[in-house]
Amino acid sequence: MLGNAEAGATVGAAAVHEPLSGALVNEPHRKLRVCVLQPSLEGSCSVFKDVDAFVKPEVHDPHGRYEWSEAFLRKATSVAQLLELLVPGVAGQQGGGGGAKAAPDVFLNLCDGAWDEDRAGKEVIEALERLNMPYTGANAAFYEPSKIEMKMAAHYYGVKVPAWVHIQPGVGRRGVEAGLESVLAPPSHGGLRFPLIVKHPSGYGSVGMSKDSKVHNAEQLRVQVAHCVNSFGGALVEEFIGGREFTVLVVEEPGPAAGDCGDTDPDLTSFHPVAYTPVECAFGPGEDFKHFDIKWTDYGSMSWRPCTDPELSERLKAAARDTFLATRGISYGRCDFRVDAAGDIYLLEINPNCGVLDPPEALLTGCASSADYILSLDPEHNHAHFLATIFATAISRHRLRQPKVAVQFFRSPPRITAQPQHQAQERQSNALEEEEAPRTPTCEAAAASAAAAAAATAAAAALALEDQLDNGVANATASSGSDSSGSNSSTASGASSPSRHSTGSGASEAITAANGEPVTGGKHPQAAAAAAGPAGHAAPEGGGAGGWGLVALVPIRAGEVVQRNEQRPAVLASSGFVKRSWPAGSRQREWFDAYAYPIGDEVFVTWSDDPTSWAPLNHSCDPNCWLRGLDLLARRDIAPDEQITADYATFCAGPNVAAFDCDCGAGCCRRRVTGADYLQPWVGERFGQHVSPFVAAARKRAGLA
């Protein structure tokens, strides 16, 4: 037997070689700090107050892999309580002595109050998002989908649902009566078949349901509908699916799914849903569905058993994965299904943040949640694996969503004259030597094609893009959007602030100073042309000569996505709508004239009216970014504090694009940016296929592809 000293030395040696759970946050020398969040029941009137017990997740960590703490949040004070956990004393509640405790690395969020409850729920998630903290469980979008939203999503994913009618009060009682008429219509006219079941249209945990919720005639139906409408503001009436009931736990795990299509969006490919062993609900005598009492108090009337039919098990898992994806599942959720006599599977609902992590003894007394029973069946997918998985995905998702770029205001430096051509060429040559982008032609190559460019300009005037817009509409500069969740999930161009700047972008400099004087001679004197000095000269946000731009927060490697626009929302306007709705001189028309760019002959991405989504993308004749489809990629390595730029010729096109003077300072600066630039030969030489789909198609029509 080893002595204490020897044992300690052995443990210490093992610790050196085996990283601790803090490795998830790049600190392998310590344990991961986990804070468990649960809703406080102090002063609560919730129906769950006396039946939904607090849990102690640390009992499922017998080897002490994590450092645990807990907090019980009240709905009204949850934000202040979270602030206190992160920065003790910030909420004015700091106790005396003892020193500040280290902030949690991840929050195990078990707050599950509904929107109409007095227990903490969705507001906790919103606070965690705003505080930029990793957390487990549903995000705001997945937290509490209505059963109507579940049914629509499942329908388009090919998951069957029972026939249903949503009854909502209208003017007087007509809304309810109209709903009842729909339910009671002959089945050939869309009516439902008895027996029916009447439910809360959005709630979870079988709230509001009793044995009487299953109805067999119109009189019973009216009573139950009236109960739900009066209690919850509406009622969901479904055909009752006779047969067996199953539950499947779905857990999101890191890594792409097998056979993934290779989409580069990390939100779509960094995680995949795994369906655990399906279990069947075995009802006692006189019971055939889960109502509130059987779920929360009368445990003897219901038990669980594993699904023993391999083929049915696989079909249930597939339906659960599809439901999870359809409803934008995050972290984990539990799907409830009915299987009829023909073997058809029907989704009843998905439960985000489902009950889980009950103490082990709950399994012995029959009061454990179905999720805990599922986790007890498979040693490969047990409670320890579940905890490790949801912590890993929470931290990984948080890391992916950290922004790469940020909006910044630049105070204009003194006007800088253009460099002599030999200096510009030498600077460009040095910069190109540092790049690892052999496909990018030099500025000298662009200068060599000047004669051909003049001819292309004449061709541009002839092309005219088939009645694209009337002569009164011009689009001068770029708008690009920024996803609040971070640059790996950046949203589409089109939700953007004004940005009509030309900025230098030499590869060896953070930002090259450019002309800070207002544009003159155009319709947009308010749009400043370039306001970017070296990164250290950026001014605090505020007024004065200057402008806004995007700046790199972290090193960005060549080829890396800087702003993701594929599969992201954009603000669109057609030329017809602009002509009809935004008269010349109106603010919307001025925004459109200055900042819209085409994605079709008659459709434009334009400025959002939401300032929080603005992300001004400035022009450079030698930019550090270019396009792949709709996504903005780094054209070369980008250093922190370097301004993000693109050449407007790669996506701003057409005879009505407002021209502006450029003083970006690049060796190949063309000094004047116009809507005809996209047809210049150097666009193909310098950018190849890294232009917008619209510009690529227009160049092809002009014989330049």
Automatic annotation (TrEMBL):
<keyword id="KW-0067">ATP-binding</keyword>
<feature type="domain" description="ATP-grasp">
    <location>
        <begin position="151"/>
        <end position="379"/>
    </location>
</feature>
<keyword id="KW-0436">Ligase</keyword>
<feature type="compositionally biased region" description="Polar residues">
    <location>
        <begin position="418"/>
        <end position="431"/>
    </location>
</feature>
<dbReference type="InterPro" id="IPR046341">
    <property type="entry name" value="SET_dom_sf"/>
</dbReference>
<feature type="compositionally biased region" description="Low complexity">
    <location>
        <begin position="521"/>
        <end position="540"/>
    </location>
</feature>
<dbReference type="InterPro" id="IPR011095">
    <property type="entry name" value="Dala_Dala_lig_C"/>
</dbReference>
<dbReference type="Pfam" id="PF00856">
    <property type="entry name" value="SET"/>
</dbReference>
<dbReference type="GO" id="GO:0008716">
    <property type="term" value="F:D-alanine-D-alanine ligase activity"/>
</dbReference>
<dbReference type="Pfam" id="PF07478">
    <property type="entry name" value="Dala_Dala_lig_C"/>
</dbReference>
<dbReference type="InterPro" id="IPR011761">
    <property type="entry name" value="ATP-grasp"/>
</dbReference>
<protein>
    <recommendedName>
        <fullName>ATP-grasp domain-containing protein</fullName>
    </recommendedName>
</protein>
<dbReference type="GO" id="GO:0005524">
    <property type="term" value="F:ATP binding"/>
</dbReference>
<keyword id="KW-0547">Nucleotide-binding</keyword>
<dbReference type="InterPro" id="IPR001214">
    <property type="entry name" value="SET_dom"/>
</dbReference>
<dbReference type="GO" id="GO:0046872">
    <property type="term" value="F:metal ion binding"/>
</dbReference>
<comment type="similarity">
    <text>Belongs to the D-alanine--D-alanine ligase family.</text>
</comment>
<feature type="compositionally biased region" description="Low complexity">
    <location>
        <begin position="476"/>
        <end position="508"/>
    </location>
</feature>
<feature type="region of interest" description="Disordered">
    <location>
        <begin position="413"/>
        <end position="444"/>
    </location>
</feature>
<feature type="region of interest" description="Disordered">
    <location>
        <begin position="474"/>
        <end position="540"/>
    </location>
</feature>
